[in-house]
Amino acid sequence: MPQNRGMDQEQARARRKTAVGNCTRVLTSGSDRTLRDWLTHLTAEATADATLVDLDAPADMYGNGVVEQLESKVAELLGTEAAAFFPTGTMAQQVALRAWAGRTGNPTVALHPLAHPEVHERDALHTVSGLRTVHPTRAPRLPDAAEIRDFDEPFGTLMLELPLRDAGFVLPSWEELTATVAAARDRDAVVHFDGARLWECTPHFGRSLAEIAGLADSVYVSFYKSLGGMSGAALAGTADFVAESKAWRHRYGGLVFRQFPAALSALAGLDKVLPRLPAYVAHAKTVARALREGLAEAGGAVPRVHPAEPSTHQFQLWLPYPAEELDAAGLRLAEEDRVSLFGLRRFVEPGPPGLSMIEVTVDEPALAWTESDIRAAAAAFAGYLG
């Protein structure tokens, strides 16, 4: 029975992939590149701009060459003294928080219970790094200044995830963020930003990347989230902090012999995708409104977009239907109308059964969709429900 169920799931994935692949328009598709696709993409990006990287330079070895070039670029963008490349964000953040625990003498990290280390890293901060976590708030937003100031026990590091993905990619205002950071400083705590998606935060804050990063003592950024890179992350801060982080990177097994594919794709993302992110963020507001209003006007249950006006180019769409029914409607829309709103993405039921959510990412393909296009597709999608 388990084997048959696995075969059924594979067949369902293949059917969905075929249907989406045959669509004339896809609003948000997710990534499903083959090995051949990745090789073709990487070669095209590396050869399209002769200034991006010197392809005749020796391949990197243990973090030199193109990896150092990437590190310098990240430090320049974030306005920090240095940056270190890591194979994963999980490793980068463990290293950062462990290093700060050693420097402050306090192994307690204050962070949100929905933050990435608490939800997606298999308790690594505790089991691998020996750190302890506390939660200044459980509200679906980042902690505010009063919650940090009045928290009833000491902590050495405050970690803020910008944006807070599992709460709906939400961000505070600039004034709220600066006040929260100041409250942590008043408690003699250091501040670390989980900036996996920091790249798209500049329109919301109305500040440059360097101004945002300048609030924190250290910042982690991702290269495959938002920028479309293959993998990898960077940890940025002062030169001495980054030097210590590189020592811990080695101890954690992150000093990889060759990393040029990830480094090349990261450089391409910084060069090509980063400048486009403000347009994606702006269009996300149109997409969110059109989805909400288009689904509501089609009749049936009222959808919810969270946040109502997206902070970045990503947001949550909630509908009071079982996930299986919503996925089936999306498949019918793709097969019968050759249009797809959500592509290969699937709905989930993170709360009560029958209340489903999907994360919507607005990037290059979505820019070609007008508000009326989205409303029409949303109405057609709703027509396949129930």
Automatic annotation (TrEMBL):
Q: Name one GO cellular component term.
A: cytosol
> Which Pfam families does the protein's record reference?
Beta_elim_lyase
Q: Which GO biological process categories is it annotated with?
A: glycine biosynthetic process; L-threonine catabolic process
What molecular function does GO assign, one term? L-allo-threonine aldolase activity
Keyword Repeat in the entry? The reply is no
Where would I find the Aromatic amino acid beta-eliminating lyase/threonine aldolase domain in this sequence? 61-305
Q: Which UniProt keywords apply?
A: Pyridoxal phosphate
What protein family does this chain belong to? Belongs to the threonine aldolase family.
Record-given protein name? L-threonine aldolase
